[in-house]
Design goal:
461 residues, alpha/beta, UDP-N-acetylmuramoyl-L-alanine:D-glutamate ligase, Protein-Tyrosine Phosphatase, Chain A, 2 domains, nine-stranded mixed sheet, five-stranded mixed sheet, 16 strands, 34% helix, globular, carbon-nitrogen ligase activity on lipid II, tetrahydrofolylpolyglutamate synthase activity, metal-binding
Amino acid sequence: MNLAITSSILAGKLISKLTKLGGNGGTALPGLVSTRLNPKLLSYFSKQITKSSVLITGTNGKTTTSRTLGTILATNQMSYVHNRAGSNLLRGITTAFLEKSNWDGKVNNDYGIFEVDEFVLPQALEQIKTKVVVINNLFRDQLDRYGEIETVWSRWDKSVRQVDKETFLVLNADDPNVSFLGKNTRAKVLYYGIEDPTQGSTLTPDVLDAQKCRECGTELDFEVFYASHMGVYQCPKCHLMRPHPHVSASNIKISGVDKVSFDLSLGENTISLSLPLGGIFNIYNILAAVTVAASLGLDLKAISLGLSKVQPVFGRGEKLQIDNKNLYIALVKNPSGFNEVLKLLSYEPKKKHLLIIINDLIADGRDVSWLWDVDFEKLKDTTLNVTLSGLRAADLALRLKYAHLDSRIVSPVQTNIAEALRTSLEKLKSGETLYVLPTYTAMLQLRKELESKGLKNFSLD
């Protein structure tokens, strides 16, 4: 090992220890400093993975997919490196390696599981020795950073064309933008999707980020929509069709916000599952993780054993208790995802107490115009009260005014998250639930506030 590698590892590890002593998670800075000292450090680390690294990208679902895959591997006694805290730029992945390596820079793990920012996939493929690439979905998100979805899609398309024939490319069959990426690649393509029309709708969603055939430009015909533009489709002109999924879910039953059951099919084999997760979107995340696990050689028995241990990730449908009252936290960061969360809440029959926290920091996206594409009109008959907080709470208040929510159920704006949480909880009776819908940085601020109240057992750790 040369001096450049040694010095960069030592610097990264020391910074990691110092940031943690200072009360900071240190999920990105150690990797940032180390790669500035040695730009080849990530590549050096990734070559030490003994079996395979998996890159997981997409607009929504990266964290739940990677956590699910990690649980499957861990349950089957397989070791892995994972940027578990969700820092999904290259610096965050490097930090994950620094955490796992010894002071000599040696890594002894079977697999790497890496969430990758949508825009960073090309660079990740260049620096990380990869055998599986997963692309979950593509929606409008952080327009100020990514631009429209065509910008991201073009980067992905260029990247998958360069993937070699020994690599598995795991794609969502139900997303027309994503499934088409399998047409022009040398990789071994595996598709996953839903096979249950009873869980879809024939009505065109208000937010539709894939409307035209990528082969000929004709507007697609959809037989059913499962979530936003994800569904069963074909082109009436060139007859491009949704690929048949290798891994699928059918006979789906959603019971409230925290329970889903379905039949999981892998090839010719099918098992029935019941998981403490909610929503169609989480079924897609499970299917993605199962498809990867199968590509790594695990059979359905081993996969089922791992799935029996799956729990919600903090901020992605997790329930907590505070003072005999319940918190349900669901991350919202773009119109399609927000609409799916609102649809999931409709499975709970009682009217709800809501706390919506909207920030516009860099990690959230500075442009909050997407709030106007969220179907807040659904809240009119399902909500007892709504508290608005965060840096852009006033923008949200204006949006709710145009959604014609009764002003008596919308509380005055409280930009301070701690105060908004306190007043929201005060409105609840013992045993009732507060549904908290934060953007990304608001979720992290909320986490710190909950820690200050003694709640520290978060699955984010």
